[in-house]
């Protein structure tokens, strides 16, 4: 299906488990091959074949299962934050330890990441703080398009509200966001429109003027 996300817009993706929401995100980010189609990025047609290519083109992705697919558990907060930028630059052009430290301290401060130090292994942080580190990783690369898959799942109440505020701030700053969520009230709260998926296909699109939890549930059940 055709998916357009404009700068400064939040598009929600809803559907039952197995509807193809996460698979769609993984295709966009180059994790899984697309059956067909192209992406128009910065006015140019692109075929996304790998996460590295997607990242270089300005796409970021925070996966649903952050412990398995997102964080490197034994690595420090600092190492987790700089990972995507280092991959973009290439491993033969290492980011200096001084720059890594400055970057990590800046994002810890800006996103309110609660950690004893930049060197704390990320596995010892709460779910909400791990999610903030993942967001920091991608924001550091200055993406134009960010995909968030279940961004508030498994995080504490305080961090939950902070993540929602951050999503709205990123949108206000002009970032294009695709948010996959089973939390329908959240989607209604921040999305500009919501696409409903079933069997890997778009079956409905609910515009802002008609957006409500019952409208989403009815479209999913139709």
What this model shows, in words?
This is Sugar ABC transporter ATP-binding protein. Pfam families: ABC_tran (PF00005). The protein is an alpha/beta fold and 222 residues long. The chain has a single domain (10-221), classed as Rossmann fold, CATH 3.40.50. The chain is built from 9 helices and 8 strands. The chain has helices at 21-28, 51-56, 66-70, 77-89, 97-111, 127-139, 157-172, 184-190, 213-221, and strands spanning 10-14, 39-41, 44-46, 59-62, 145-149, 176-180, 193-198, 201-207. The strands form 2 sheets. It has a 6-stranded mixed beta sheet with strand order 4-5-6-1-7-8, with helices on both faces. A two-stranded antiparallel ribbon has the order 2-3. Strand 5, helix 7 (157-172) and strand 6 (176-180) form a beta-alpha-beta unit. The chain is globular, with a radius of gyration of 17 Å. The model has no long low-confidence stretch (mean pLDDT 92).
